[in-house]
Amino acid sequence: MVRKKIIGNWKMHGSIQQVHALTQALLDCSAGKVSNIDRVVCPPFIYLERVVQQLADSGIQVGAQDVSAHGVGAHTGEVSADMLADAGCRYVLIGHSERRQSHGESEALVAAKLSRALEAGLTPVVCVGETLAQREADVTLSVIDAQLQPVLGLSAEAQQKVVIAYEPVWAIGTGKTATPEQAQEVHVYIRHALAVKNAATAASVSLLYGGSVNAENAASLFAQADIDGALVGGASLDAQQFAAIWRAAEI
Ligand code: PGA
Asked: CA distances (Å), 190 to each of 9, 172, 251, in order?
């Protein structure tokens, strides 16, 4: 698996028409160019299948923003990992801070979703990150450590299939990016935590940074040895800007 990845999280934005136009603009940006990185977009559930079809053969993959912790059954409103795979999704975000904060997602829930995603053959993107209060209280690394437990509990073989996104909560949607050095410090910590089980796995896992990444700050973040790409929110809604970010990672 290539370590470099750029993932766009469209969150709860768009309409059928807007999603179609954004997807077409991404196709225009990537037409005729071969990429040496993984590029992924995560539309809202309801648009997944359309976007999968529109992006067929483009080299751009599709992911979901969440997944049920359950398998098939009486779970009203839920979408299972098998359904996502069936719809053509290859990736799924798990434990995004917006879900941890406003839907009370716990480590146990993240662990359950993670195993469902792996069983269905999806690439899980597990999100971790501290709040501003936690950073100021100097507990960033212990918060990351606790949020990493669902991944650290996996076998080395399973860990190899996981992507981890470090997204400081104070940097998400605020325009306030972590400095490349602040991000690198946490990325190194995460890679060392993975290396306790298996050094080769730790070296191969993609560690993405997220939080106000844009076309201007992307290159300096990607210049850090352990930042393999980005999970991009707001800037991924603009195809030109998203393409500029993936080009910064292609170098
Ligand atoms: P942002 O969001 O790029 O808009 O800060 C990142 C995310 O929440 O994944």
From this structure: 22, 19, 24
